[in-house]
Amino acid sequence: MSVLVLGGAGYIGSHAVYQLIDQMSDVVVIDNLQTGHREAVHPSAKFYEGDCRDINFMRMVFKVESIDSVIHFAANSLVGESTEVPLKYFDNNVYGTQVLLQVMQENELKKIIFSSTAATYGEVDSIPITEDMPAIPTSPYGETKLAMEKMMKWCEQAYGIRYVSLRYFNVAGARESGEIGEDHCPETHLVPIILETALGKRPHITIFGNDYDTPDGTCIRDYIHIEDLIHAHLLALDYLDNGGKSDIFNLGSNQGFSVKEMIETARNVTGKEIPVKSGKRRAGDPSILIASSEKAATILNWRPTRTSIEKIIEDAWNWHVNHPNGYNSDVTNK
Ligand code: UDP
């Protein structure tokens, strides 16, 4: 029996495929390569290029393969873009998940691990964020992820499809052995932007706001190493395999670092200057986001082990130095 990884050519999905194969699982990958990279798919995984909104394609894959469980990463995930083109997000994210659940139901598949986000919470009154806090998203992106969670809840009641939804905080880093890493186009995330600046691919990094109500005035986030994050998915699969009930878990490191602290750490790790400019606040950025991951610790027995930001940045830097142009090593300016 195989695990189907939808979106297995993307940053997070590709790391999941590698860890699943490390633990000897058979893996089937579906990805439409809209934002993913064929080169990021583990050579031992069975790869299908196609779109999860295409029900005939999905039915074909489920017919050909013996799929036992699904990990669903396939989604658009840029908060800013989602405010400009919300229907793109509802179509790809929500409708894509609807088709997936339809085909799972037709094939009597009963287990799904879902890639969700802290963006489901919106503005929060207190830190750290726990799963019982109200989810009132402030972006279409967060709204689509919340809608996908709700769709799964109703599908469980009707069809018995159990789910674990994992709400990620700020994911960064790369596989420790260096084969795969983070390569988005365009890149919007802090850690890769800092490292592209260290590599000289950008003249400077702009800090989005230094007048927040935090000790150094810049936003504080909870950074989690990609390998720790993925480990939680494998534990969640075991949990469902052992009869665990559907649930939602935060995944973070329970600690916060400011934008300035991240840049300073990257200077130490890389030995590069990393020029900085001050910019305006970015719309929709809350000042502090820190997870409580107590629930994942208690129920899934998940404990992140790579919690130092030095380690996260070191592993990301290792990928960037060895892949200065991402997966397309022959293209100079992506
Ligand atoms: N950030 C920044 N400059 C950049 C990119 C990000 O100052 O070029 C800040 C951003 O405002 C936020 C933090 O870095 O406070 C993390 O942003 P990212 O986009 O990586 O993740 P998010 O918290 O939005 O999920």
UniProtKB/TrEMBL annotation:
GO BP terms, alphabetized: galactose catabolic process via UDP-galactose, Leloir pathway
Keywords for the protein's UniProt record, in alphabetical order: Carbohydrate metabolism, Galactose metabolism, Isomerase, NAD
Pathway this chain belongs to: Carbohydrate metabolism; galactose metabolism
Enzyme class label: isomerase
Cofactor(s) required, per the database record: NAD(+)
EC numbers for this chain: 5.1.3.2
MF annotations from Gene Ontology: UDP-glucose 4-epimerase activity
InterPro entries reported in the protein's UniProt record: Epimerase_deHydtase, NAD(P)-bd_dom_sf, UDP_G4E
Record's keyword annotation contains Isomerase: yes
Domain NAD-dependent epimerase/dehydratase, first and last residues per copy: 3-252
Catalytic activity: UDP-alpha-D-glucose = UDP-alpha-D-galactose
Gene3D superfamilies: NAD(P)-binding Rossmann-like Domain, UDP-galactose 4-epimerase, domain 1
Statement: the UniProt record of this protein carries the keyword NAD: yes
PANTHER family named among the record's database cross-references: UDP-ARABINOSE 4-EPIMERASE 1 (PTHR43725:SF53), UDP-GLUCOSE 4-EPIMERASE (PTHR43725)
Annotated family: Belongs to the NAD(P)-dependent epimerase/dehydratase family.
Subunit structure comment from the entry: Homodimer.
Protein name: UDP-glucose 4-epimerase
Chain's gene name: galE
